[in-house]
Amino acid sequence: MKIATYNVNGVNGRLPVLLRWLEETKPDVACLQELKAPQEKFPEQAIRDTGYTPIWHGQKSWNGVAILSRSGDIQEVRRVLPGDPNDEHSRYIEAIADGITVGCLYLPNGNPAPGPKFDYKLQWFDRFIAHAEELFASGKPVVLAGDYNVIPTEFDAYKPERWVEDALFRPETRAAFNTLLKQGWTDALRKLYPDETIYTFWDYFRDAYSRNAGLRIDHFLLSAGLDNRLTSAGVDRHVRGWEKSSDHGPVWIVLND
């Protein structure tokens, strides 16, 4: 079973790129973030024409998350992260797809930090940690995939000294990510490639992509048991080089049956 995550950075503006990638790589399940489209503007028919059944939670201009299933076997569980009934951001959606619970997330960026946006990032992170703990304790197979907006270690950034004061790399952010891992989750890419330079994001500025001046901020966390089913993982780095592509590259894992 191949599961992918991709911050599309505008699902309608970059629809040709998304559809080309789906046709080329055919993941069984695809998690999308940063749709930047209200609920009624999601390109449902175009996605279905590619052979996928989608569920999505849109938001005008910002945020937005979706899960696509190639088998059509998908059951929505929730589309709001628990813990704050007043939070209107479309940043989390959860479904059971092919027998696996998949949580698709777009964690807040948090910049500028310190400040209100960083406070919201940490508050959202706390809610996510609490929900993840419940999911892990359930004993069910769970994958938490998406744009975490977290640089876990210095190894995950080109010239990490430039990111010391950034919300993605501040000590509070990395501590929250480590708290999550201590629940027992497995960082899929690092399990398979502990010593390799892996990036999933390359800024549009300063020719970052061609210089491979990137960050690893899109992650797969696997519950107990799924880590033993992990056979391969990677980043479709070449997609970042396509015309009018997102500043993220799709990330994927393969789980055996």
UniProtKB/TrEMBL annotation:
PANTHER family per UniProt: EXODEOXYRIBONUCLEASE III
Q: Which CDD domains does the entry mention? A: ExoIII-like_AP-endo
A single Gene Ontology biological process assigned to it is: DNA repair
> Per the UniProt record, which EC number(s) apply here?
3.1.11.2
Site (Important for catalytic activity) found at D218
Organism in which the protein naturally occurs: Hufsiella ginkgonis
What is the official name of this protein in its record?
Exodeoxyribonuclease III
In this protein, the active site sits at: Y106, D147 (proton donor/acceptor), H248 (proton acceptor)
Which residues are marked as site: Transition state stabilizer? N149
The note on cofactor binding and number reads: Probably binds two magnesium or manganese ions per subunit.
Q: Is Metal-binding found in the keyword set?
A: yes
